[in-house]
Design brief:
alpha/beta; 7-stranded mixed beta sheet; 11 helices; 11 strands; 22% strand; binds S-adenosylmethionine
């Protein structure tokens, strides 16, 4: 006879929302790293490099949208607000930040308030308006939560997060609906997700169900079947992530987006984005300021920071 496991907060959460409770708990519990902690971390340069890539993606997307009076942006799965400064630099008009992890949303809001206060005191930069929503964006329709009822966005950015929704078809669709349904015609949805082809190829090359190195590990449940939804793997990245994730088969996402009148503009690897943007003097200065590479320019043939970046790809779709 089976005995039921005692109901913990986590098992209750799983019952209601699959693994999203586990994901939210992981991010809520994540300590805000100090600059010192980050410098000590073995993945220091890799994280900074990823952050520089996001700066390029965001700056280029805002250029593509190009609204003279400033853009309205949805930062879907905003986390602790790591991109707030990028939005300031992009001179946007309004930002809506949404995330499942309530503690992260609070930290994001505090960061924003501190930034507004700093700018007010120095008097040298005008800050955008912002709204903060704590919600499972693969479950809840954000349309019902915006303070501005007829809210329209020029850009939705979903960085390193969309894959969490691929636990189930309905969740992925709701997340996509939230990303796209309030975009103006001509508006863009930009995101970064792990590269599914790369994940499968590394899994197939490995002896068992796990691959990685001393910094990251990925563990799949099997090597033969990769369902379109719910294709779970555990991702561990030193000191940053230890969480279940779901693989995305990109052509499926592209097909799903058509339902929301979106067309694919491009799909690129981080390496492509690096190569396209590393020539400009301003971008090089930012690489140096953000300490995005251990050595710049990188030695010939060594690529950028580490092989891990190839695991990520970035896609941009446009609302037609
Ligand atoms: N976009 C931020 C950035 O680039 O710094 C945070 C990225 S972090 C790797 C992933 C984020 O996705 C976490 O903040 C997590 O809470 C959020 N997330 C995961 N599933 C979500 C969901 N169903 N709804 C909203 N946010 C979600």
């Amino acid at each position: 006879e089976e005995t039921a496991a005692p109901a913990t907060e986590e098992t209750e959460a799983k019952k209601e929302t699959g693994l999203s409770g586990t994901v939210a708990k992981h991010y809520n519990d994540l300590r805000e790293g100090s600059v010192f902690d980050r410098a000590r971390s073995r993945i220091y340069y890799q994280r900074n490099f990823n952050n520089w890539i996001k700066s390029m993606i965001i700056a280029n997307s805002l250029k593509a949208v190009h609204r003279k009076k400033g853009c309205t942006v949805l930062d879907l799965c905003c986390g602790k607000g790591g991109d707030l400064l990028k939005w300031t630099k992009g001179h946007i008009k309004k930002l809506v930040c949404a995330d499942i992890a309530a503690v992260s949303v609070q930290q994001c809001q505090k960061r924003y308030n501190d930034m507004v206060e700093r700018n007010r005191r120095s008097g040298n930069q005008k800050t955008f308006a912002a709204e903060f929503i704590s919600a499972d964006c693969a479950e809840v329709l954000l349309t019902e939560r915006y303070q501005e009822k007829d809210m329209l966005f020029d850009l939705c950015s979903c960085q390193f997060s969309f894959h969490y929704s691929f636990e189930a078809a309905a969740r992925a669709r709701t997340m996509l609906r939230n990303a796209c349904e309030r975009l103006r015609p001509g508006g863009y949805f930009v995101g970064t997700i792990p590269n599914g082809y790369e994940l499968v190829s590394r899994l197939k090359e490995s002896d068992g169900l796990t691959f990685g190195n001393e910094v990251y590990k990925v563990t799949f449940e099997n090597k033969e079947t990769f369902p379109l939804y719910g294709c779970k793997y555990d991702f561990h990245l030193e000191g940053v992530v230890d969480c279940p994730e779901f693989m995305i088969y990109f052509p499926l996402l592209e097909e799903m987006a058509k339902e929301f009148d979106m067309e694919l503009v491009y799909l690129k690897k981080f390496q492509d984005i690096y190569e396209e943007n590393c020539e400009s003097v301003d971008n090089q200065a930012l690489i140096s300021k953000m300490q995005a590479l251990e050595q710049f320019p990188p030695e010939k043939g060594t690529g950028t920071a580490s092989k891990k970046e190839d695991d990520y790809s970035h896609a941009e779709t446009r609302h037609t």
